[in-house]
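dude i think i finally got it to work??
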Amino acid sequence: MGKEIRTRMCILDVDYVIDDDKNTIRIWGKTEDGKTIVAIDNGFVPYFYVEPNEITEKLKKEIMELKVQEHKVKKLEVVEKKIYGEPRKLLKIYVDNFRLVPKFRNIIKEWKDVKEEYEYALSFYKRYIIDKDIIPMMWVEVTGESISYDVEADLVLEIKEIKKIELDRVPQLRTVAFDIEVVQKGEREEIIMVSLMGNGIKKVITHGKGKSKGMVTVVNDEKSLLEEFIKTIKELDPDIIVGYNTDRYDFIKIDQKCEDYNVPLVLGRTKRQVVFKKRGRISSAYIEGRVHIDLYDFVEHILGPSLSTEILTLDRVAKELLVVGKDGKSWRDIEKSWKNGDLESVAEYCIKDSELTLKLSEHILPQIFELSR
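look at this
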């Protein structure tokens, strides 16, 4: 048995996995002294509601005897809940695997004694944060047992109790900005450079002519560039990865290239690869254990209407919000410099994008944090 610990943590993200057929909620965060913490909750049981024409013992018995893939209903409660402001008596149906919720619902909805079903489409982690009344950037006090768990974190606790606390501060967060440069070579595109800035680093990774010097690391080829990028992110261990248009461009290109070269795109604090999750009209790159923020999305949807520029490029937005922009070099000049082996010019161009993105994040992230609260 591990030691029982009580600590305060600021929530950065909440997700879920299935471990040994158990529904596992993971709360990723930072402690007051800047340590990375993961709080694990294996005790939260998924559920949904059913509104019958009439609650009878016969109906309750039929629900309790229902089977889906050898799984039965775990528990059944009669509850009162407001639907559109009107109190109604419902059946609250618990199942032991959140993926089975829609399957149980699909069977029950066909029964003539059932009028309506509710909250069956909520994802498991959303169900959890609603019930626990927690949100990202909120501080909570967690009591739990220190356990061994296969993630990269300073502390992992299995939750016994979690409660909200009032603490008006932002924890120490490591933020890294990145940007890529791509050229067309015949019929294929090639990533020629990746720049990273933040958390005490200023680095450009490239391949081609030239030698490593200063902030520039030259590798053998495109595959080696991807591997060095992944290695650098893992070494820096950022809490937040920021970019500008990374959901629509940078991460799409990186993911495609990693697939081509069979390079696992593992950037998070687990062994799982980056995945793309649907969010509104676009898919967003999700990195387990880290927060990925595409600043372009926030600029387009929140800040855009208040900006004087209608062209939301990094250069235009940075000039308006930060009164600083790029140095005016054209991409054609930069591409020519790279082909001629003038890595210094290309590196300065590329790192400028990461620098502007990092500065923009310092301006925008506090607003995002406030909105998330």
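The CA atoms of residues 204 and 347 lie 6 Å apart.
im so relieved honestly
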